[in-house]
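Before a colleague's protein record goes any further, I have to sign it off. Thanks in advance; the entry in question is below:
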Amino acid sequence: MANENLESLFKSWLIEHNGAVLKVARAYTLTSEDCQDLAQEILLQVWRSLPQFQGRASAATWFYRVALNTALGWHRKEHRRQARQQTIVAVEDLPASGSDSAQQMVQREAVERLYAAIRQLPKTDAALVLLYLDDLSYRQMAEVLGISESNVGVKLNRAKKTLGELLKEESHGS
């Protein structure tokens, strides 16, 4: 594929999948700066990997797989440093205006608690929950993670249960 075609494809996929990149980056980081760094690393990996895209999976599935693999690798390298960092305060995808500030604060806190709980899950479970939150089908999740659809169902049910317990513990602890 010519460089112009790769660049055009990259730009269109970036527009289409930018939200997924940010969700994955946010789930694997604790600070806004690290979130941005990981998002850039994911996009760099997508660009580098684009010539190897063979179309056997959908663009969304392939994009997620690159994002998750990059995030998992980044997390392994950054694990020690992350343990000492403060959590992210800013939350994307919440309305900037149009709702009352008390409601916004409640929403921000709920999303922050969710991401904090997701970060406590084993990394493959966290990846599965992110895919679930993005409304991917079991088939798509199986393709991204390289496991069977039935395994997705089992792992997802366990991850949801663990996530629920983590959120319940957190709400009782506050």
